[in-house]
Write a structure and sequence with these properties.
elongated, Purple Acid Phosphatase, chain A, domain 2, six-stranded mixed β-sheet, binds manganese (II) ion, alpha/beta
Amino acid sequence: MKIAIFSDTHLGYPRFEDDSYIQAERAMADANEKADVILCAGDIFDTRIPKLETLKKAIDIFNSSKIPVFAIFGNHERRAREMTNPVHLLGAATKITVLHGNAETFEKNGERIQILGMGSVPEEYAEAAVRNVVEKYEKDEKAFTILMIHQSIKELMAGDEKELSLECLEPLPFDLIINGHIHNTVSKLNGRFLIPGSTVITQLKKEETAPKGYYIYDTSAKKATFIEIDSRKFFYEKIIVDDAGDSDVRKAVAEKIEGIRKDFPDAIIAIKVEGKLKEGLTARDISMQEYQNVYIDNRLDSKDLGTKLERIREMRNQKLSVREIGLKNLLDKTRGKTDFDGAVFFEKLLEGTEEALEYLEQNKKKAREF
Ligand SMILES: [Mn+2]
C-alpha cells in the first residue's frame, strides 16, 4: 500500500496566505494520483479559530480527495477539551477521519493498515500521554501499524528535558511513527520515524529554504520517498559590509535581490545585513528600500558603539572598577591632545563640574604664560 503523509499546511497563514492554499492543494492533488490513503499530521490550519474563507478553502481541499484521509490536530489548533477545534469542524464537514487517542483501520486489496492518532498535547505531558494512549490501544496484529503524533522531539531540538524523545518512541509497537510540528523533513530510526515537514514556509529561517513537499511510504518496500511540490523558492541570504554608508548598503541589497530575481521572479527572499557602518552612522540611519516579498533583517553595527562596547568589555575583563574605567577612558582619549593632567581633571570632575571647569581655566592661563 502507498501512504501519502503530509503535515503543517498552515492554511490561512497570513504572510503567505495564497501559498498556504496553493501548496496544500498541490500536495493533495499529487497524493491522490500516487497513493491509496492520506495521513495528515496536524497544523492543517494556522490558527485555532480560522476565518470563514480559510475554513471554506480547507473544506474544498479536503473534499477534493478521492482517497481516505486520516488526520490529527496540531498545537496551532489545540483548544480546551470541551471546545471544538477547527480540525474537528473539518472532520464534521468532510469525510476525513479525525483521530485523538483512538485507532482506525483502512483496508485495500486485502492489505490493512491501522493508525493510532494523538493530537498535540503540551510538551511536558507528551511522554505520559503517548504511553497512556499506547497502553489503551488494541493492536491489530495483522495490520501494518502506524502511530501519528504532533510533538517536539528532544533529539531534534535544542534539547529540552521535558520533550518527547526518539528514545521513548523507538520501542513502541509500531511499524511506522509519523510526526508533524517540525517544519523540515526528517527521517530517523532507519526510516521508521518520519516528519514530512510543512508544505508552506512559516519562518524566515535558513532551514526553510529546503524543498517543500510530502512523503509517500510504500508498506511492501518499507521505504519512504520524498515528493517535492512545486512551491515558490525561498532564499535566505547574508550580506556583510564594512565601513559602509547608506548607499553602499542599499546597493549591496539591490544587487543581491536582482541576482535572485533574474532566475526566480516570484521568490521569497530574506536578507540578513551585518557588519560595520561608517563612523557616526547607526543601523537606524540606513533606509532600506521596500521590495515585495523581501524581508530585511538589519543587524548593522555602528562603528563607535561597537568599539565602545568592546572597550568596556575588555576593561571589565581586567576587573577594573567603574571609576577606573572612567579614568582610563579619559586618559586614553586625551593623551597627547590636551595640556592639562587628565588624572587631575578626572578627580576634579568627581568633585563637581564647577571644580573641573575651574581647573581647566587655571590650566589655560598657565598655558598662555609659556
Ligand atoms: Mn506547525
